[in-house]
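Duplicate of #3305? Posting structure anyway:
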């Protein structure tokens, strides 16, 4: 699932939808929902994309350091 979709799902719940209903509608577990909320909660799509880019760069640097 893409960052845009995840943020859209989180915003549904932030707008007042019941968490269990949101999870059922999108076929995800509540554990997954709360994991996403911890990572993406409050972010806009552009910020989430930047976070993903930084995580990828960090992983590359860790790999280089390990070599």
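Output from current build:
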């Amino acid at each position: 699932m893409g960052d845009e979709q995840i943020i859209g799902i989180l915003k549904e719940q932030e707008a007042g939808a019941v968490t269990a209903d949101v999870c059922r509608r999108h076929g995800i577990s509540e554990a997954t929902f709360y994991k996403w909320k911890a990572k993406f909660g409050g972010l806009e799509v552009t910020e989430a994309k930047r976070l993903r880019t930084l995580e990828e760069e960090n992983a590359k640097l860790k790999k280089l350091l390990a070599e």
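Confirmed duplicate; merging threads. The chain has one domain: 3-66. The chain is about 80% helix and 0% strand.
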